[in-house]
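We both want to read discrete structure tokens more fluently, so let's practise on a single case. Would you supply a protein for us yourself, any chain you care to pick? Would you write everything just below, so we can both look at the same thing?
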Amino acid sequence: MGNRATFGSLLVQLARVVSRIERDEVCCGDLTFQQFETLRRIERAPKVTLSSLAAELQIDQSTASRNLALLERGGYLSKARHEADARSVIVELTRKGRTVLTSLSCDERDAFAELYDRIPAAQRASVVAALAALSEALGEPATAACCPPEPKRRTVS
């Protein structure tokens, strides 16, 4: 099998595993992974419109609208008419939305930290560099960690 075929097979395998980790270890409660991703995108672009959010998530506006309605009913976000264009709806996270997003993002960080720790220490830097290059090739610039560092554990002597 050539490098391109191996690359493709590995991408499919990794996508499945990452999706499973996101579903089983990160998203919990009444949020789906797509709703978690929606909240994350709203956090990155405050006062985002429905149409720009749908475009960024690469989903139909009707799907985005349904997701936003569910998230609004759950108290995770609020919607308001755009000041300059009453036809546009502006979407913002509520305090509950920000809180759950921080919690789930930290759950995600912890789940992937466990995976990172299973990579041999000598290979970690090259794996991270390769993933950053892949992210850039996919048009998604690599981003820094989103969660505060874990608090240092106090030891009792």
Remarks:
- The helical segments are 3-26, 33-44, 50-57, 61-73, 95-117, 124-137.
- The radius of gyration is 19 Å.
- The mean pLDDT is 82.
- The longest strand covers residues 77-81.
